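Q: I'm building a small set of examples for a reading group on sequence design. Run inverse folding on the following structure and report the sequence directly after it, with nothing in between.
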């Protein structure tokens, strides 16, 4: 495992990892739930989805959206065992130790903390659904000729 400073320096050089940011819903979720709840969620996701030696659906177990921790996992390369091995030197095919799990949670929480220092993302205006007029029957049409 590397120091989190070293990992964040390396992550900053990855265009793929740098494109991840919290959306308005995830930002609000972080504000309302707070760091303690998010840390518990991160620990639970790591323990259930990544800690086993051979996680189910490895490489595809972390959704790209839906929870701030999922976005943080992709941004910090803590999303699958392959990324954990490549970016954090946590060996694949071996159960993660408690110390390795705590490290992954610390990396995720550091990224979430940095994201929460950014201005809140703008919400996208919802498109109004325009009702299509029913097919006018010929009786309603005006005959101008």
């Amino acid at each position: 495992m590397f120091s989190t400073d070293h990992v964040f320096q390396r992550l900053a050089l990855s265009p793929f990892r740098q494109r991840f940011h919290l959306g308005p819903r995830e930002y609000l979720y972080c504000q309302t739930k707070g760091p303690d709840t998010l840390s518990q969620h991160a620990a639970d996701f790591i323990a259930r989805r990544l800690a086993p030696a051979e996680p189910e659906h490895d490489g595809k177990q972390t959704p790209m959206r839906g929870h701030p921790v999922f976005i943080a996992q992709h941004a910090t390369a803590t999303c699958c065992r392959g990324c954990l091995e490549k970016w954090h030197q946590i060996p694949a095919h071996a159960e993660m130790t408690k110390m390795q799990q705590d490290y992954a949670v610390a990396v995720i929480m550091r990224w979430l903390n940095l994201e929460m220092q950014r201005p809140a993302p703008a919400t996208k205006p919802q498109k109004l659904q325009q009702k299509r007029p029913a097919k006018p029957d010929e009786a309603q049409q005006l005959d101008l000729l």
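The chain is about 50% helix and 0% strand.
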